[in-house]
């Protein structure tokens, strides 16, 4: 992309963050790198960055139309987006509708089991510590977030779950679980909690509604093959949803 600095402010596993044209803006560039198990497994998949950028952009615009404040400002090219500069809250929010992945393994619940209620979990955002689970009292005890911020993150996460469940259902996809990240947006002395990072098959479990075929990063985690095909299918179906 023209004008993009060669020196990222932050190099992530699947995205790089660069200075934006204004002090309160950043540029995020999606990479083709597929990773699992906190980077222990890694592979370059040509075109993955474009797919994730397109899917996440689609979802963030849909959420914004439905009242969710996000960091996304606009697309810059096929892999780069301009976002508001926010102070990332170092807590990942995980929302679960059905048992799968680590939840199934940890609690002995078969994958695909419908949960009696939506589960909201928190993990410390720390690759070096392997993103351990953390509870609300621990979060407030070590000043990662205030209780008011946690309450707002939970409120937004549950609303996002409602919106995404409906969106994916219309696309013939079941939303199993997903991860969210939030940030603090500072403006004239006020602080607002907004949705940041991305929402894509990298951060969601997505199953075909009828066949239960996996269409997300589990295809990479579990050596199932067809990773890009799954991501392309997700994007194609979202584009065909009539309500957007």
Overview of the molecule:
- The protein is α+β, with helices and mostly antiparallel strands.
- The protein has 2 domains: 10-84, Phosphorylase Kinase, domain 1 (2-Layer Sandwich), CATH 3.30.200.20; 87-226, ATP-grasp fold, B domain (D-amino Acid Aminotransferase, Chain A, domain 1, 2-Layer Sandwich), CATH 3.30.470.20.
- Helices cover 30% and strands 33% of the residues.
- It contains 6 helices and 12 strands.
- The chain has a 5-stranded antiparallel β-sheet.
- β4 (33-36) and β5 (41-44) form a beta hairpin.
- α1 packs parallel to α6 (227-239).
- The radius of gyration is 17 Å and the shape is globular.
- It starts with 9 loop residues before the first strand and ends in a 5-residue tail after the last helix.
- The model has no long low-confidence stretch (mean pLDDT 95).
Tell me the name of the CATH class of the largest domain.
Alpha Beta
CATH superfamily of the largest domain: ATP-grasp fold, B domain
Our count of helices gives 6
Strand percentage lies at: 25-35%
Strand arrangement, major sheet: 1-2-3-7-6
Number of domains: 2
Helices and strands, in order, run as EEEEEHEEEHEHHEEEHH
How is the quaternary structure best described?
Answer: single chain
């Amino acid at each position: 992309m023209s004008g993009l600095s060669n020196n990222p402010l932050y190099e992530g596993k699947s995205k790089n963050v660069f200075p934006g044209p204004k002090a309160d803006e950043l540029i995020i560039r999606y990479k083709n790198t597929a990773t699992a198990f906190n980077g222990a497994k890694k592979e370059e998949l040509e075109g993955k960055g474009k797919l994730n950028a397109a899917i996440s952009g689609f979802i963030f615009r849909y959420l914004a139309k439905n009242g969710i404040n996000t960091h996304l400002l606009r697309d810059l090219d096929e892999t780069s987006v301009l976002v508001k500069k926010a102070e990332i809250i170092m807590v990942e929010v995980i929302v679960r509708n059905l048992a799968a992945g680590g939840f199934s393994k940890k609690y002995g619940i078969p994958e695909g089991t419908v949960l009696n209620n939506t589960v909201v979990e928190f993990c410390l955002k720390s690759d070096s510590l392997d993103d351990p689970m953390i509870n609300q009292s621990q979060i407030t005890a070590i000043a990662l977030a205030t209780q008011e911020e946690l309450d707002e993150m939970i409120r937004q996460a549950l609303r996002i779950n409602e919106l995404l469940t409906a969106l994916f259902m219309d696309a013939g996809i079941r939303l199993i679980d997903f991860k969210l990240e939030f940030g603090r947006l500072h403006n004239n002395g006020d602080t607002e909690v907004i949705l940041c990072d991305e929402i894509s098959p990298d951060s969601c479990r997505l199953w075909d509604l009828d066949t239960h075929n996996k269409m997300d990063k589990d295809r990479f985690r579990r050596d199932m093959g067809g990773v890009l095909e799954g991501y392309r299918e997700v994007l194609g179906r979202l584009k065909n949803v009539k309500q957007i």
